[in-house]
Structures are given as structure tokens and as C-alpha cells.
Amino acid sequence: MAVQCGRDNGSIPKKLGSEFVIRRNNDHVTAQVCRRGTELVNIDLKIGEYNNAMTGMLYQFPEAGKKTYGGGFYFHLDREPDKEGKSHFQNGALLQNLCEYNYHSWEPGFAAIKLQSSIDDPWGELPIRTVIGGAYSSNDLMVHKLNLCEEIDADVLAPYLLTARYDRTAFMETGRR
Predict the structure, then answer these.
(1) How far from 158 is each of 42, 75, 93, 162, 166, CA to CA, in Å?
(2) Tens-digit pLDDT profile for residues 140-164
(3) Integer Cα distance of 149 and 132 in angstroms
(4) How far is CA 55 from CA 59, 76, 137, in A?
(5) Rounded mean pLDDT of 32-50?
(6) If we measure between CA atoms, which residue out of 136, 153, 135, 169 comes closest to residue 13?
(7) CA angle (68, 74, 75) in 5-degree steps
């Protein structure tokens, strides 16, 4: 949810061919993401209490039936191919959004997260200092406003966005040899 505008609306390439598995057994939830035979994400969640006392405050003390609002800033860029099929970045911008969250459920959880790398997706190299949030929830997300804050040269912006820089599929490379 938190990166919906950046990844879905912002045209940043998503991972293709990933396998997402989420399981719940009473008060225990696990989630794994595997891609091309490599486990990239492994999350273990124990429902009952938060990792950090600030979590409730950060998420506006959500609960089933409650409506909250949030927002963020996102970089946007388009990736357009030329006649030879080579992609070029254009239309760089900094965007701001306002989202409404309508919670159907919300259960506090204590989360442990393990990230790993693959050849073309080195997210696991980024350290996690602490996990602030942890919850098992379902909700509806509605984007109320999406504002243009500033236009930015896409060729300057793209190298600074990790997904655009490291996801080699954005450059028509699969990472396979």
C-alpha cells in the first residue's frame, strides 16, 4: 500500500514471475516471496502486540471499521521504447498523494523480516535497522489527490531510484547468462 503510487502509478517496473505465499495459522502468519528459485523475502508475524510502541501512533491507531488518511511523496518517471526497442526515461516528476484507508480488520503483530538478494535485485543488501510496524490487516485504499510538486529531468532521476537502477529488466536485461 505504502508504495502503490510509486510502483503502480509511477511506472516503476515490478518484478515478474515472483511467487508470493502468505499463510496464517491461528496467531502466526508467514509470507515468502521467491523469484527464479531464490527466496527474496521471508516474513514471520506473531499476532498480538507491535514490534514498537510507536506503531499505533504512526498508523493512527487503526482498527476494524475505522477510516484513516495518509500520504507520501513519490518519484514518477515513464519508460518509453524507441523504434529499436531500447527504453528511454522521460517525464520525471516528484508527486504527492493523499490516501484514505478503510480498515476491515487490523490485528497488531510482531514481525521479523529477512531480505535476500538475487543477481538482478539486490534489495537484501540494504540493512533493516528496526521494524516499526507489524500488523495483519485488510483494507480498502482510495487515492484522493495526486499533486505534481516538481518536474525533474528523468535522465537525472532514474539512476537514483533503486528499482529503476538495479532492476535490469528495465533495461531489457534478464540477469541470466
Answers:
(1) 28, 9, 11, 8, 10
(2) 888 888 899 999 998 887 776 645 4
(3) 28
(4) 6, 28, 14
(5) 86
(6) 169
(7) 170
